[in-house]
Amino acid sequence: MGEQIGNYLASSGIVTYIVLLWLSTYFILSVWIFVYRYFVLSALIGQERATLESLVEGVRKIPRSALLGYALRKRRVGMSRETLEVGKQRATSRATLGLTMLAVVASTSPFIGLFGTVVEILDAFSKLGEGARATLDVIAPVISKALVATATGILTAIPAYSFHLLLKRSAFELATILQMQIEMIVAGEHVDVEQGS
Length: 197
Fold this sequence. Notes:
Elements: H1 2-10, H2 14-56, E1 61-62, H3 67-75, H4 81-95, H5 99-130, H6 136-146, H7 148-187, E2 192-193
Parallel strand pairs: 1-2
């Protein structure tokens, strides 16, 4: 297997190297964004669930660490529905960081791979046109080698798209919990932000 990869890379052109490097960078970036954002969102969702549970149980203080508590502390204004909605929008905006990059990777990777394939096939056919012999035995390996770039593009896009959907679902869950907190706060008599750390 290692010998085949070595032969593939040795017989590839500069465009193939650029395409494979680009797709490798996309893949590493996608995995990094997913892992980092997954743990951040999981922690935020757990924290905000605990805050919601305390509001349901009748506790009238939002922890300073809660996203709405943080938004209220920073704004130093009254606790109106509008202020709470602004806090929710800020938190949702923070929760969706990285989703755009995952969407870009998922949508462009197949095209980048396809570009590499087209360039390799054009190069192969120009070389085959120079020789007199163009049989299936000669053309098939060249085309299969050229299709590696397309396969790499698809293999990069699939995880990026899946990661995008999983993180989008987590961000939606966080926004839903924050909306429930807002409803509980507005329905209650009075809620304060804790002063301690």
